[in-house]
Hints:
Elements: H1 3-21, E1 29-31, E2 37-39, H2 40-56, E3 61-64, E4 75-83, H3 85-90, E5 96-103, E6 106-114, E7 119-124, E8 128-133, E9 139-142, E10 154-157, H4 160-165, H5 169-178, E11 181-183, H6 187-196, E12 201-204, H7 209-221, E13 225-227, E14 240-243, H8 248-256
Parallel strand pairs: 3-4, 10-11, 10-12
Antiparallel strand pairs: 1-2, 4-5, 5-6, 6-7, 7-8, 8-9, 12-14, 13-14
Helix pairs in contact: 1-2, 5-8, 6-7
Amino acid sequence: MTDLQLACLLADRADGITSARFRSTDLRVDRKPDRTPVTDADTAVEDAVRAELAEHRPGDVVVGEERGGSATTGRSWIIDPIDGTKNFLRGVPAWATLLALVEDGTPVVGVISAPALERRWWAATGEGAFRRVGADGTVERISVSGVTELSDAYVSTTHLGSWAEQGRRADYLRLVDSCWESRAFGDFWHHCLVAEGVIDLAVEPVANPWDLAAAQILVEEAGGGFTDLAGERRFDGGNALSSNGALHRAALRALDG
């Protein structure tokens, strides 16, 4: 079984758990020390994925949002069992399981599975980026948009308050003022939309490695650019900008003032 095949198997396992718990009346919700919510589905998914990896890739490191761990040199699996937990617990269907294999600091496999949206995206180094719509839908190769001017660009972010918390609200508004249209799709979804060519820019003022590793390889294999807000090509810089590539430098300049 290839690493990509394994990642898709892990996503299938996760989808079975999350779909069964979505909108359930007995969903258990706790708060972590940083006050973000965690449900019993989050921990169940991560535990199931870790068990599968222990069987199929016992020598690999595993890093997850709920159970911890640290990526090292070599091979590390980065797991976000439910990205968009607030949506999940409120019954909003925009949430996903994110899985990435990172080798020596670079994502080489990524799968993003959003069963309530009936969508899955995946990529592997040198193999392109793909999506499937519907459980038995047609698999399509995806690519970023051809927009070349910020004034024609469609940009998305997460919660605007996050920019204020980072002292960068004016930076984001400057980018928005330079673009044609803006929305706040947030979380995994806006990076997937960049990879599909539906929007042109997705920007996050604060994010964790498990939020971004799968998104990085998806966007890059779709022909786009992915960096932190300092312009470094990485998923662990604490923030992120994904783009169609052509707009990347202009977006960074707008954010930097």
